[in-house]
Amino acid sequence: MTRFSILLPALLAAVIPVSARTVSGTVRADRDSTIIAGATCRLMANDTFITGATSNPQGVFSISTETKSGLVLEISMPGFNNTEIIIESGNKDIELGDVYMNDGVNLSEVTVNANYLIESKGRTIIYPSAADVKASATSIGLFQKLPLAGLEANPINRSLSVDGGTPMILINGVPSTIEDVNAIQPKDIAKIEFSLVTPARYADKGKSGLLNITLKKRDDGGQIYAWGRSAVTTTFVDANVRASYHQGPSQFTLSYNPSWRNYQDVYDNTTESYISDEFKVDLEMHDRNPFNYHYHNLQFKYDYSPDPTTLFSATFRITPSYDKSRSIAHTADSQLGEYDNYNVSTSKDLAPSLDLFLRKDFNDKNSVELQVVGTFSSSDFRRDNQYMFGDSEKNYIMNVDSRRRSLISEISYVHQFSDHTSLSAGYQNTISRSTNTYLSSDYKPILTENNNYVYLRLGQQIGRVYLSAATGAKLFWIENDLNKRHFVKNISSAQASWSISSQWRLAGAFSYSPGIPSLTALTDYPQQTTPYLVSNGNPDLKVSENFLYQLMPSFQYKKFSASLLMNYQTINNFTMDDVRYMGDGLFLSQTINAHRFRMTGGNLNMKISGIAGFGINANLGLNHYNASGTDWSHSLTSFNASFTLWWNKGPYTISYWRKIPGKYLQGHYVRKDENGDALSFEYQPNKHWTLGASWMYMFETKGTQYPAWNYSKTNPSYRERYIKNNGNMVVLSVSYSTDFGSIFRSARRSLNNSDSGSSLLKM
Predict the structure, then answer these.
(1) Distances (CA, A) of 227 to 49, 141, 185, 242, 255
(2) What is the C-alpha separation between 67 and 553, in angstroms, rounded?
(3) pTM of the predicted model, to two decimals?
C-alpha cells in the first residue's frame, strides 16, 4: 500500500477559517499515467466516513468538508492497490495534483474477487468480478449474475429488460442496441452503470431504465470475436461476428448478427365469441401456425479520436429481414357451421441507416454532443386470408407497400458547476415521411411527422444524498390524408439516492410521461380480416398520462447483496384494444382510451456468489393490476420469479436458469409471460475457444407456451398457443476470440503528458 504524507505549513493554521475546505486532485495509473475514472475517494476521520466522491471521466475528484481536524483520504479502485493520503488539520483548500495508483497483484489474471458495487449520482455502478466473468461465455450470461433489481436477462432470447420494458443501452456513452451488447465479450466489460430512471435525454424514446456499459481500455491492435449457436433438432440459429482494429486515433469495427427460425409445430387452440344484443356467434378454432423468419444486422463503424477531448463516430447499419407465417385452421362456427381457412402472411423489410456522432469536451466542466441519423426503410407486406365454405370460398386480402424516410437530429450540452452540481440540456428533432400503398384499393396515404423534444436536467450531491430533477416538452405534429393532430406535452422526472452506509442504500424516483398515439393507431382505413371482424385505426385517440413512483432499498455485505424495488403506477386515459358491434353481423376492432390503469408491485433481488465456485442470483416479483372503463373493471394479482444458479471450476462452468412466468393485465386481456429454462455446460480449453451445450425447455413437451384470456363482454375468448419445436431442445454453441497487434505500455510521464494512444472512448 502506497502512503504519502502532505504536511501543511504551520502558518496556515493562523489564517481566518472559511465555512469549508476542498481536497481535490487527479487519479492516474502509475504504470503509464493514464487517468482513472470511477475511483472511489473517501475522507475518513478515526475510521469514520466523513464524505466522498468518485473521479470523473477525466480522473478529477473534488471533495468539500467542514471538518478542520486531521483526515485520511482513501482512494480505491478494482484492479489497483488502495492509496491513502494524510490530510493535516487546517482550513485551506488542498490541491494534490496527480495521485498515482499501483496495479493490483494479479493471480491468474484475476484482480477483482467480488462484484464491486457503488452508488454514484443516482446510478448503481458495478465492476463485474473476475469469477463472474470467468463463468460467463456471453455478455447476457454475465448480466444474469448481476445483483440489480428490476433487470432481467433472458439467455434464450438473448434479451435484456428493465422493469418489464426495453432499457436505453449505451456502450461507452454512445446509444447502442441489444445486438451490440451481444457482440461484447464479458472480459472486455470494465463497468456497468444501471438506473431504473431513464435519463431526461432519452425520456422521449419510450425506454425503461438505463444501462451504460464501459469497455476496458485497449491500446493499438485488433480483435476478432465469433460466436454461434444452433439447435440439433430444429432450425434455431443465432450468430455474432465482430472484428475491430485500433490504430492511433482511429478504430474500425465490422459486425454481423444473423438470426434464423423455422418452426413448423406451432399450435393455437381458441374458443371465442362475438356477442351483441342482436347477434351472437361462438367459434372454436384449432390452428397450426408454422412460421419462418431470418434477419441480418450488418454494421460498419468508424471511431476517430485525435485527442482525449474529441470523439467522432460514423456508423452505417443495414438490416434486411424476411418473415413468413401460415395458418392452417379448422373452425366450428355456430352461425356458418364448420369450415377451413388458410392464411399466408409475408413481410420483406430493409432499413439502411447512417449515424453520425460527435462529442467535444471543452474542459472538465463543459461538453457537447451532436448526433444525426438518417434512415431509408421499406416494408412489403402481403396477407391472403382464405375461407373455404364447402363449395364456395371468400378471401380477405391485405397487401401494402410502405416506404419511410426519416432524419433524427440531436444536440446535448452538459455543464459541471462542480463535482457536486451538474446541469444538462438538449434538443431532439425527428422528421419523417411515410407512404403506404394499399394494393387492393390503390389507396395511398402519405403520413408525416415532426417530433420535437427539449429538456433540462439538474443534479446535486449533498453529502451522501444525490438529487436530480428533469423536465421537458414534447411537441409532436403528425398528419395524413384525412386528419392532422398536434400535441404539446410535458415529460418530467425526479430521483433521489441516499448512501446510508457502506452496506445500505436507499433510492426513490418519480416520472411522468405522456402516451402519444402513433401514426398507425390514428390512421382511419378499415380492413376486413375475418367473416366477422373489421380492423381500423382511431383518429380520435387521446393522449394517455403515465405516473410512476419507485422506491428501492438495497443492502450489500461481502458476498451477499439484496435489493427491493417497489412500484406504483397509474395511467389515465390508457390505451387498449377493444371490439364493438357495427351491425350486419360485423364487429370493429380498434384501439380506444379507457379510464384508468393501476399497478402496485414489488421485485426482490438476492445474490450470493464466490463460495467454492458457486453462485445464485434470484428475482421474486408480486404485482397487482386493476383496469377500468365505462361499465367494466378487471383486477389481477400475479407472482413471477427467475433465478440463475452456476458453478465454475477451472475451465468448466455449469449453470441453470429458470423463469416462472407471471400474468399481466392489458385492458380486457390477460396474458401470461413466456416460460423458459436452460441447463448449460461450458468448457474453455484455452483463452481463445469456448464450447457449450444447453438443454432448453426441459421436460416441456409443448415447448414455449403463451396462454391468454379476453374478459370483454363483446369478445370473450381463451387461447392456448404453444411451440412444440422448442420442447426439450438441445443447443450447441461455440465461440472464438483473439487479440492481435502490439500492446503499448508507456513509462510514467510527467504531469502535463497525456496518452493519445489509449482507448478512444473516454467519456
Answers:
(1) 46, 13, 10, 9, 11
(2) 29
(3) 0.77
- pLDDT (0 to 100) of residue 100: 77
How many whole angstroms separate alpha carbon 184 and alpha carbon 93? 43
Answer whether 613's CB lies under 8 Å from 636's CB: no
Per the CB < 8 A criterion, the answer to whether 238 and 698 are in contact is no
pLDDT averages per 10-residue partition of the chain, 763 residues: 36 42 84 76 81 85 86 82 78 81 47 54 80 87 86 88 85 83 86 85 81 78 90 93 88 92 95 95 95 94 86 92 94 93 93 92 87 92 89 87 93 88 92 89 86 93 89 90 84 90 87 85 84 91 94 87 93 94 94 95 90 91 95 95 92 94 94 94 91 95 94 95 94 90 31 24 25
Phi-psi region of 609 (alpha: psi -120 to 50; beta: other; left: phi over 0): beta
Q: Residues 281, 286, 292, 295: is their CA dihedral positive or negative?
A: positive
Question: Which residues 6+ apart lie within 8 Å of 650 measured at CB?
Answer: none
Distances (CA, A) of 346 to 326, 403, 486, 722: 9, 16, 34, 21
* Cα 368 from chain centre: 24
How far apart, in whole angstroms, are the C-alpha atoms of residue 43 and residue 53? Answer: 9
Q: Cα separation of 544 and 38, whole Å?
A: 40
pLDDT given at position 190 = 83
pLDDT of residue 116: 58
Closest CA to 204 of 503, 470, 397: 470
What pLDDT is stored for residue 135 in this prediction?
A: 87
- The strand pair at 266-275 and 280-288 is best described as antiparallel
177-212 b/e with 16+ CB inside 10 Å = b?
Answer: ebbbbbbbbbebbbbbbbbbbbbbbbbbeebbbbbb
Q: Which of 125, 82, 171, 211 is nearest to 759 (CA)?
A: 171
Q: Are 345 and 385 in contact (CB under 8 A)?
A: no
Under DSSP, the state recorded for 181 is: H
Burial (CB < 10 A; 0-12, 13-18, 19+), residue 730, is: middle
d(CA 66, CA 74): 18
Nearest CA to 685 out of 634, 735, 645 is that of 735
What cell numbers appear for 104 in the block?
Answer: 493490483
Q: How many CB atoms lie within 10 A of CB 681?
A: 13
Whether 715 and 576 have beta carbons less than 8 Å apart is answered as no
Lookup: cell for 447 = 403520413
Q: Is 186 left (phi over 0), alpha (psi -120 to 50) or beta?
A: alpha
- What pLDDT is stored for residue 177 in this prediction? 85
683-689 contact pairs (CB < 8 A, 24+): 683/651, 683/652, 683/653, 684/137, 684/651, 684/653, 685/651, 687/737, 688/736, 688/737, 688/738, 689/734, 689/735, 689/736
Q: What CA–CA distance (Å, rounded) separates 523 from 520?
A: 5
Q: What are the respective helix, strand and coil percentages of the chain, to the nearest 5?
A: 5, 65, 30
Longest Cα–Cα distance in the chain: 108
- The residues facing 528 across adjacent strands are 534
Strand 174-176 and strand 168-171: the pairing is antiparallel
- Residue that the C-alpha cell 510521464 belongs to: 749
Q: Which helix (H) or strand (E) holds 132?
A: helix 130-134
Report whether 730 contacts 231 (CB < 8 A): yes
- The pLDDT of residue 175 is 80
Residue holding cell 409443448? 702
User: What CA–CA distance (Å, rounded) separates 629 from 582?
Assistant: 20
Rounded to whole angstroms, how far apart are CA atoms 258 and 692? 19
Alpha carbon separation from 615 to 86, 156, 160, 559, 659 (Å, rounded): 39, 20, 20, 10, 17
Query: Phi, psi (5° rounding) for residue 348?
Result: -120, 125
